[in-house]
């Protein structure tokens, strides 16, 4: 399924959960894993002095410093290197993290990028505490050509490959791109695919919230759209189910994923009808990323 996986890490505890998923996915897929770490941002122009992302101190990027960082990263992931080191390449870079991650992903034609929701802080709870995702993750998810798998919490159900995939749609154009990734992944590994839509009943029109008749009409229309847009593409693959709930979308998605013991949630990066380069991460996907017990794949392109 994946031949080249890029695991972008600050090598801090905030990335530990993502590391477990990245190495496990690479091992299960027999994929080449690039362990990518940015040393720091140059203090000015093309200066060889950088501000270390972990310590915040200025460091001169010479041979000794690179060797020290490489040793630190290898020590951090020593157990994983023992199991899958033969097909893992440690790559160091200097620059703005998001820019360097995207540049490397394009150059190597990466199939999947794995990241934590927030890599700046040593506190793995930081993303959930602040209820916002990190800038690096947001920028990578917005501009990457490949899907970005975001891991924010320990995953207790996904160590044996993905078996229950929840694809969430609001019927936007971006959601159609995400569906292709979700269905291709499910078909490739034989996972059950749940096609899920949550009707947002919290948004009032002209000050009036939808009544039960409105909700039922919306559910009926949503069923028709799912048949036309998604089920028509499933071919002979019948290991799928369709569910439509009403409520606050991110809450319903999380409840549904928990009920189905999902090990992967697939969503579009945004829902607005605009170019991916300009679209901010959607509030629903952001809240799902922060609170989900399983990894979330953010997709911007087919």
TrEMBL record:
InterPro entries: Rossmann-like_a/b/a_fold, Universal_stress_UspA, UspA. It comes from the Bacteria. Residues 1-151, 162-297 form the UspA domain. Pfam families: Usp. Belongs to the universal stress protein A family. This is Universal stress protein. It comes from Desulfovibrio psychrotolerans.
């Amino acid at each position: 399924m994946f031949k080249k996986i890029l695991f972008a890490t600050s090598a801090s505890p905030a990335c530990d959960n993502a590391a477990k998923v990245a190495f496990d996915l690479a091992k299960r897929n027999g994929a080449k894993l690039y362990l990518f770490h940015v040393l720091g941002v140059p203090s000015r122009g093309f200066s060889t002095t950088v501000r270390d992302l972990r310590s915040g101190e200025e460091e001169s990027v010479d041979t000794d410093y690179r060797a020290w960082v490489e040793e630190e990263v290898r020590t951090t992931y020593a157990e994983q290197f023992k199991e899958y080191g033969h097909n893992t390449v440690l790559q160091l870079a200097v620059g703005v993290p998001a820019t360097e991650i995207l540049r490397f992903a394009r150059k190597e034609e990466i199939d999947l990028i794995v990241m934590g929701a927030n890599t700046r802080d040593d506190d793995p709870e930081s993303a959930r505490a602040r209820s916002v995702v990190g800038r690096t993750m947001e920028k990578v998810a917005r501009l990457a050509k490949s899907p970005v798998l975001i891991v924010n919490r320990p995953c207790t159900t996904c160590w044996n490959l993905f078996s229950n995939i929840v694809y969430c749609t609001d019927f936007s154009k971006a959601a159609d791109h995400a569906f292709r990734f979700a269905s291709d992944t499910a078909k490739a590994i034989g996972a059950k695919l749940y096609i899920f839509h949550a009707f947002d009943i919290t948004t009032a029109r002209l000050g009036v919230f939808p009544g039960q008749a409105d909700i039922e009409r919306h559910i009926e229309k949503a069923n028709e759209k799912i048949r036309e847009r998604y089920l028509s593409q499933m071919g002979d693959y019948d290991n799928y189910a369709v569910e439509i709930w009403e409520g606050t979308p991110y809450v319903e998605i999380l409840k549904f994923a928990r009920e189905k013991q999902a090990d992967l949630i697939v969503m579009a990066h945004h829902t607005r009808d605009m170019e991916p380069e300009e679209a901010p991460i959607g509030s629903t996907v952001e809240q799902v990323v922060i609170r989900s017990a399983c990894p979330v794949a953010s997709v911007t392109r087919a």
